[in-house]
């Protein structure tokens, strides 16, 4: 997604949901993905973009999975939305005032992870091993490093990588939650014609699971999969379950096409 890791970042771009949707479509055409319909998956902000994309370019999408998508009017307010209301983002915000998803310290990063995850996150064995080797080589060789230390080093590296771009992330975030993009998915639901799957963690504190009912009311034939003991970071918390749900739905949609 433009603006994320591995892409250029410039304030001159339109990072609204509509702007992102147009650039995804440009990419699809540039690499020839539009030669045949494809299955599209979007999570959180990406779910907002994916839903709008499927609505505006229905010929491109054979089936669609939205994972705890943004862009709706949620019947129940989440902890994250309540925090945003306290910030009063409609008014100019001092650069030093933290946004929960844009951490500037380890304490804020840990708070963000608690918001995003039902359980404290762990890191895969291979990543943990590399973190140990890179940050504490001597201790790693003698086996004296605790698993918690590896996670701490990993999170410190993640934070150090993000902080230089925090002003940009803040600009994009304010664009996404602004009037132009805030309810983009809801405004386009009636235009979605592709078979639709909705996946949501029942314990999501970022975007409340009540959003699933909003989509189901607008599109009664959609498939809704709700995960117990799971927060907003579904692909991180339940990767195998998530992958199986998407693959099963995609295969079923292909058979019914």
From TrEMBL:
GO terms for molecular function: monoacylglycerol lipase activity. Pfam families: Abhydrolase_1 (PF00561). It comes from Gambusia affinis. SUPFAM superfamilies: alpha/beta-Hydrolases (SSF53474). GO terms for biological process: acylglycerol catabolic process. Belongs to the AB hydrolase superfamily. InterPro entries: AB_hydrolase_1 (IPR000073), AB_hydrolase_fold (IPR029058), AB_hydrolase_sf (IPR050266). Residues 1-239 form the AB hydrolase-1 domain. It comes from the Eukaryota. Gene3D superfamilies: alpha/beta hydrolase. This is AB hydrolase-1 domain-containing protein. One of its GO terms (cellular component) is AMPA glutamate receptor complex. Coiled coil: none annotated.
């Amino acid at each position: 997604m433009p603006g994320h890791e591995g892409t250029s970042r410039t304030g001159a771009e339109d990072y609204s949901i509509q702007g992102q949707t147009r650039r995804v479509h440009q990419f699809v055409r540039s690499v020839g993905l539009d030669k045949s319909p494809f299955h599209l998956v979007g999570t959180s902000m990406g779910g907002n973009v994916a839903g709008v994309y499927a609505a505006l370019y229905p010929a491109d999408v054979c089936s669609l999975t939205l994972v705890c998508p943004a862009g709706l009017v949620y019947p129940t307010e989440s902890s994250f939305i309540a925090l945003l209301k306290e910030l009063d983002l409609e008014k100019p915000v001092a650069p030093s005032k933290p946004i929960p998803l844009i951490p500037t310290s380890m304490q804020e990063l840990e708070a963000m992870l608690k918001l995003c995850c039902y359980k404290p996150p762990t890191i895969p064995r291979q990543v943990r091993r590399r973190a140990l080797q890179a940050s504490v080589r001597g201790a790693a060789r003698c086996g004296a490093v605790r698993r918690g230390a590896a996670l701490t080093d990993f999170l410190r590296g993640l934070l150090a990588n993000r902080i230089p771009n925090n002003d940009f992330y803040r600009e994009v975030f304010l664009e996404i939650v602004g009037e132009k993009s805030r309810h983009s998915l809801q405004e386009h639901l009636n235009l979605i014609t592709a078979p639709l799957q909705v996946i949501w963690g029942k314990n999501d504190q970022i975007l409340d699971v009540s959003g699933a009912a909003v989509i189901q009311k607008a599109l009664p034939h959609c498939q809704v999969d709700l995960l117990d003991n799971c927060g907003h970071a579904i692909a991180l918390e339940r990767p195998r379950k998530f992958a199986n749900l998407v693959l099963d739905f995609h295969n079923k949609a292909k058979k019914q096409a």
